[in-house]
Amino acid sequence: MALSLIGQLQETADFIRNKYNHSPGIGIILGSGLGNLTACMEVELEIGYEQLPHFPVSTVEGHAGRLIFGKLGGKPVVAMAGRFHCYEGYTAQQVVYPIRVMKLLGVNLLLISNAAGGMNEGFRVGDLMILRDHISLFTSNPLLGENPAALGPRFPDMSEPYRKELIVKAQRIASRLNIPVKEGVYAGVTGPSFETRAEYRLLQLGGADAVGMSTVQEVIAAAHMGMDVFAVSIITDMGIRQEDNTITHQEVLEAARKAEPMLTAIFRELVTEL
N or C: which end of the chain has fewer CB within 10 A? Predict the structure, then answer.
């Protein structure tokens, strides 16, 4: 007999607990080209996704594909080095499966990073944008279908998907570290093709400052389960542009790697102060 979603989640969590008996209160998701934050961690255990029962497996370049447990800034954390996307062939429910496992392990705060295309004309490649809100209308909602009451309410509130208190704290940290940061709205799309010029204009007119192929489903699942969220985008390319240029995934990874030390510093200090 096939296990229910709750049963699968419990089996994954139990597998991890048998290998790691500490409870991380903070979860971190590392996006494309952003895996080096783990170098700042006091790593205690790494588990490849392929070892975890019911867990998806990363297929995208720039996503290592492992759960990393340890301490950051003296706090117990678990980091996802590599996330999942619908364009890999996964359902929205599979994309957020790790978020639900994190919650069962004790995570109440989720820090998210991603690589995004800039659409605000005041942005430049390499900028950091703190997410204050998002638009998820262009992706499949991970809460579609049956709603096990143990996971969260049928109709979760999304009026504050990104905790304002954490945004203010991160802005103060960035100012203290002399790291310039922007703030804006992130539009989630399915990918994997980059957006057309007309699509960029549509998203910009809809109020988005940046666009990417991840994050919004993770945030919805986190809110559903009562987790606080803070997220930052690295602007790796500019969608609103006049010149006749194209975008490649390699360019996105390179831009992310160059800006990563700034994002790492903010995450590290934020965790330390919590």
Answer: N
Q: How far apart are alpha carbons 113 and 101 in whole angstroms?
A: 19
Contact 186, 128 (CB under 8 A): no
CA separation for the pair 31, 49 (Å, rounded): 15
Quote the CA–CA distance of 112 and 170 in Å, as a whole number.
13
Closest CA to 190 of 131, 140, 115: 140
3-state class (DSSP) for residue 122: coil
Asked whether 126 and 97 are in contact (CB, 8 A), the reply is no
Q: How far is CA 43 from CA 16, 50, 69, 166, in A?
A: 15, 19, 6, 25
In the numeric block, which tokens belong to residue 39? 């170098």
pLDDT at 33: 59
Q: Could you give the maximum distance between any two Cα atoms of the chain, in Å? A: 57
Domain ranges of the chain: 5-273
- Model pLDDT for residues 262-271, shown as the tens digit of each residue: 999 999 999 9
**Distance between CA atoms of residues 167 and 189, nearest Å:** 23
Burial class of residue 253, CB neighbours in 10 A (0-12, 13-18, 19+):
middle
Q: What is the mean pLDDT of residues 232-238?
A: 90
- Enumerate residues 6+ apart whose C-beta is below 8 A from 203: 119, 135, 187, 189, 195, 211, 239
If you write DSSP's letter for every residue of 10-28 in order, what string do you get? HHHHHHHHTT-----SEEE
> Is CATH 3.40.50.20 correct for 5-273?
no
pTM: 0.93
The whole-number average pLDDT for the span 53-74 is: 83
